[in-house]
Amino acid sequence: MNLMNHLLALALAVPLLAAFATPLIAMISPKARNMWVSCVSALITLIVFGVLCRVLSMGTQVYVMGAPSWNITLPSGLAIPVRIILEADAFNALVAFIASLSSLAGAIYGLKFVRKFTGLEFYSALYFLLTAGTLGMILTGDLFNFFVFLEISSVASFGLIAFWRDRPEAVEASYKYMLVSQLAAQLVLVALAFIYGRYGVLNMAAFSSVVQPDLVSKVVLVFILVALGMKCGSFPMHMWMPDAYAEAPASVTVLLVAMSQASLVVLCRFCFSIYGTAMGTSVIPWALIVLGCLSMFGGVSMAVVQHEVKRLMGYHSVSQVGYMLTAFGVGMLALGDKTAMDGFGVTAVAGGIYHMINYILYKGLLFLCAGALYMAAGSRDLDKMGGLARKMPLTSALFLIAAAAISGLPPFNGFVSKWMIYESVYAVHPILMVVALVSSVLTLASFVKVYQTAFLGPEREQFAQTHEVPRAMIAGMCVLAVAIVVLSLFPSWTVNTLVRPAAEALVNKASYGAAVMGGALSCSAVFSLALVSGTRAFGC
Amino acid sequence: MISANLPYFVFAVLFLIGLLGALLETNLIKIGIAIDVMESAANMFIIVLGYRNGGYIPVKFLMPEGVTNFVLPTPQALTLTAIVIALATSALMLSLIVMLYRHYGTLDVREIRRLRG
Amino acid sequence: MKKKSMRPLSVIARTACGMYSWFMLAFGAYVIVHGDVTPGGGFQGGSICATFLALMLIAQGSDYVEGWLNENFYKVCLFLGLFMFIGFGLMGMGWAFDGTMMFNWAAVAHDQLAVVKPWWPPSGTVALMDIAVGIEVAGGLSLILITMFRAVRLNQVVEDGLGKETGHDQR
Fold first, then answer.
1. Range of the domain at B63
2. Does B73 map to a domain?
3. Fewer CB within 10 Å: N-end or C-end of chain C?
C-alpha cells in the first residue's frame, strides 16, 4: 500500500478518527489529552502539506472512494463517475494547507486558553470535527459530499460558539448563527436537488462538462451564490459574523475564519470551474462586485465605532471578504475574453486567492492576540484596557505584525495582495478602486486606534499584576506569525510558485474536468446521457 | 400539466411556508418548527425526483424477471443523509432554546437582543 | 425549590409499556440487520432502538428511570459503533486488501453465495457498516434524550463542572 496515494483520504479520515478517540483518551489524564491534541494537529498539517507538495509537482490529484484502486474515476463501461471523488488542484491544496496551519495554531493556543473549564474532551472532539469538516469542504470534488461536510462543520461550530454556556450572549450568538446557517444549508440542498433532477450527475467535474445555460442552471447558480454568500458573510447576510466571532473562544474563532473561507473556495469553484463561460450573462459578476463593494465599505464603517475588540475584528472580517468577492467578480467579468484575461483577469483571480490565504493567516493571528488580551485584562472592552505593552511585549509585537498586514502596509503580504486587487479592479471601473482604497484607510485607522488604546499609553493600576500569557499561547500565535513573515519576505517566490498556479488552475475549466473525466471521449456520451435523464425526470 | 407536476408544486408551497415561518415568526420554538418544515420539503423534493412511472424496487434479486425500469436509488441515499442531518440540527436547536429560556426567561425572539450595534 | 419530575403513568400503562419496549428493541435490531435489502438500515433501526428509552421515561417516570440508568453503557455503544465504522472503512485501504477507503472488500456475487459462504452477507461491508452505525445511533440518540431530559427538569442537576464555570464575563 503506497501511503502517498492515499494522502487525500487520510487528510479527511485522520481528523475524524481523532475526534472520535479524544473523549476516550481524555479519560486517562489531561496531559494525555493535551499531547494527543497537539500531535494529531501536527500530523494533519503534515498530511495536507504532503498533498500540497504532490499537487505542485505532479498536477491535479484525484482520489476515488470505494474503488478497487485510487484513480479509477470512470469504471469500465461507464461514461460518468459514479463514486465520491476527492479532487485537489493547486487552488484547493493551497487553501487546505493554510486552513490546516490555522487549525494547528488554534489547537496549540487552546491548550492553555480554556484549561480552567470543564468539558474539554468534548471541546477537543468538536474542534477536530470542525477541522475535518473544513478540510472536507475544500478538498472534495463531489457536490453532495460538500453538503455533508458543510453540515458537519456547521453543527460542530454551533456547539463551539456556545462553549461558554453560562454567558447568555454566547448562546444567543450561537442561535442566531444556527438560523442563518440552516437557511443556507437548505438552499444548497434544494440547488443540489435541481442539479440532480436536470442533469443526473452530482460530481463537480462531470457537472461542469454537461452544464447548459438554461433556466434550471441559472436558478441553481443564484441559490448557491446566496447560500454560500450567507456562509462567508457578505453584505446583506453578515449579521451573524461579529456576534459569532466575538462570543466564541479565540482558539475556535481561528477555525471559524477558515470555515468561512472554505465556503468561498466552493463559491469560486462554482463560478469558475463549473460554470465558467456557460452562464452567458454578466449579471452574476456584477452582482458579486456590488456585494463586495458594499461589504468592504459597510463592514469597515461599522468596525470603526466599536469598542469591543473581537466584535471590531468581526466587522473587519466582513470587509475583507468584500475584497475577495470584488476580486473574483472582476475575474469572472473577464472570463470569456482572452485579452481581458491576460490584462487584468488572471491578476484579479490571483489577487483574490492571495488575499484569501493572507486573510486566514492575519485574521487568525489578530483573534488569537485578542484572546490573549481577554485573558490578561479580564474584559474585551477597549475602554478598560491601556498600557499593556510593557507587561505583554510579545503579544504586542505579534499584534503589530498582524495589524500591519491587514492594513496593507508594505512590506507585509497584505500589501502585495491588495496591490494586485487594486490594479485589476481599476481596469473595470475606477470607482471600485476608490472604494477599496477608502476601506483600506479606514482599516488602518481602526487598528491604529485599537493598538494605541490597548497597548500604548500610561499604565493602569489594575494591571499591576498582569504578566505575559502562557508559552503555549505564544507558540500558537507564532505559528501564524512565522507563516505571515515567510510570505512577506519572499513575495515573488510566493506569487510565482503558489498563487499563480492556483489562479491558473481555477480559471482553467477544461483541466479541472479532464482530471476526472479523462479527456474528450466522454463529452458526447455524457451530454446525451444528461439530455435523456433530464427529459425523463421532468417529463414524467 | 398540473397533475404531472403536482409533487413539485407541493414542494414549493411547503418550502415557502417553512421559509416565511423562519423569517417572520417571533416564538423561538415556532422558528425551529419552520426550519424543520423547510428541511422536510427539501427531502421530499429529492425523493420525488427519483421516481419513474411504473418503476420497481432498485434491488436486483427482488425484481421480477426481465424488468428494466426501476426507481432511482441515488436520491434515496441522499435523502437519508439529509434526514439524519436535519435530526441532528433540530436536536441542537432545541437544546439551545432550552438554554436561551433559562438565561433570558422568555421565548420571544424580539427580547433576545443583547448583542446589538 | 420544589422538585418537579415526570410522574409515572397508571399501573396498566406501566405494565404494557414494560412488555412492549423489549419488542421494540427486537424490531429495531431487525431493521438494522436487514437494512441492505429491505427498507431500513443503520440510522433507522438505531432510532427505533433509542425510543426504548423514551418509552421508559414516559411510562415509568423520571425518578424510576434515573435509578437504573447507566449512561456509560450508552457512551460505550456510541464509541464502539464509531470505531467499528471507521475501522471497516480503513480496512479496505490497508495491507490485506489493496483498495481505497470504504472499498467493499467483503462483497460476494449473489449467484456464488450458496456455493461459497451461505452465511455471509452478499452486500459485503454495507451490512457490516449498517450494524456499526445502528449501534452507534442507538447509543447516541439515547444520550441526547438523557441530556435533554436532565436539562429540562426544573430542579438544578448539579454536575461536577457547573460550579466552576460561572462568571465568564468577570474573571
1. 6-104
2. yes
3. N
DSSP 3-state of A238: coil
Residue A16 grid coordinates: 475524524
Q: Inspect the interface and report whether the beta carbons of C148 and B62 lie closer than 8 Å.
A: no
Task: Provide the residue range defining the domain that includes A251.
Answer: 3-539
Residue-wise pLDDT for C128-167, tens only, equals 889 999 999 999 999 999 988 887 764 444 443 344 444 4
B80 contact residues in C (CB cutoff 8 A): 41, 43
Whether the CB of B61 is below 8 Å from some CB of chain C: the reply is yes
Instruction: Please give the Cα distance from A433 to C3 (Å, whole number).
Output: 65
For residue C105, the distance in angstroms to the closest alpha carbon of chain A comes to: 9
Q: Of B84, B92, B99, B107, which to mutate for an interface test with C (greatest number of C Cβ within 10 Å)? A: B84
Dump pLDDT digits (tens) for C49-99: 999 999 998 898 888 888 888 888 999 999 999 999 988 888 877 666 667
ipTM of the complex: 0.95
pTM: 0.92
Pairs of CB atoms within 8 A across A/C = 68
Cβ contacts (< 8 Å) between C104 and chain A: which residues?
A: 66
Q: Which residue is listed with cell 437494512?
A: C35
Instruction: Compute the mean pLDDT over every residue in chain B, rounded to the nearest whole number.
Output: 90
Half-sphere exposure of A35 (CA within 13 A, CB side): 6
DSSP letters spanning chain C: -----PPP--HHHHHHHHHHHHHHHHHHHHHHHTTTTSS--HHHHHHHHHHHHHHHHHHH-HHHHHHH--HHHHHHHHHHHHHHHHHHHHHTTSSSS---TT--TT---GGGHHHH-TTS-TTTHHHHHHHHHHHHHHHHHHHHHHHHHHHH-SS----TTGGGG--SS--
Which CATH number belongs to the domain containing residue B16 in this structure?
A: 1.10.287.3510
| Residue B38 near chain A (CB below 8 Å) | yes
A86: cell is: 476527492
Predicted confidence (pLDDT) at residue B4 exceeds the cutoff of 90: no
- CA of C88 vs chain A CAs: smallest distance (Å): 12
CA A356 to chain centre: 7
**Number of compact structural domains in chain B:** 1
Comparing CA positions, the residue from A290, A311, A310, A289 lying closest to residue A302 is A311
Say yes or no: A361 contacts chain B, CB-CB below 8 A: no
Q: Which residues of B touch A151 (CB under 8 A)?
A: 85, 88-89
User: Please, which chains are in contact with B (at least 3 CB pairs closer than 8 A)?
Assistant: A, C
Residue C158's alpha-carbon distances to A73, A122, C145, C169, in angstroms, are 55, 19, 18, 21
Q: DSSP secondary structure string, A357-412?
A: HHHHHHHHHHHHHHHHHHHHHS--BGGG---TTTT-HHHHHHHHHHHHHHHT-TTS
* Number of structural domains chain A divides into: 1
Q: Does residue B32 form part of some domain?
A: yes
Cα–Cα distance for residue pair A332/A340, rounded to 1 Å:
10
In A409-510, DSSP assigns E strands to none
Residues A150, A224 contacting (CB under 8 angstroms):
no
Residue B59 lies in a domain: yes
Helix extents (H) in chain B: 6-24, 28-49, 74-104
Domain boundaries, chain C: 11-154
- The answer as to whether B117 is a domain residue is no
In which residue are the cell numbers 484513480 written?
A71
* Residue at grid coordinates 447509543: C139
Dihedral sign from CA coordinates of A349, A353, A355, A359: positive
Phi and psi torsions of A483, nearest 5°: -65, -40
Hey, what's the cell of C14? Answer: 406501566
Would the CB atoms of A172 and B112 count as touching at under 8 Å?
A: yes
Q: C-side interface with B, Cβ within 8 Å?
A: 37, 41, 43, 110, 144, 147-148, 151-152
Residue A56 distance to chain C (closest CA, Å): 23
Are the C-beta atoms of B84 and B78 separated by less than 8 Å?
A: no
C89 neighbourhood in chain A, CB within 8 Å? 13
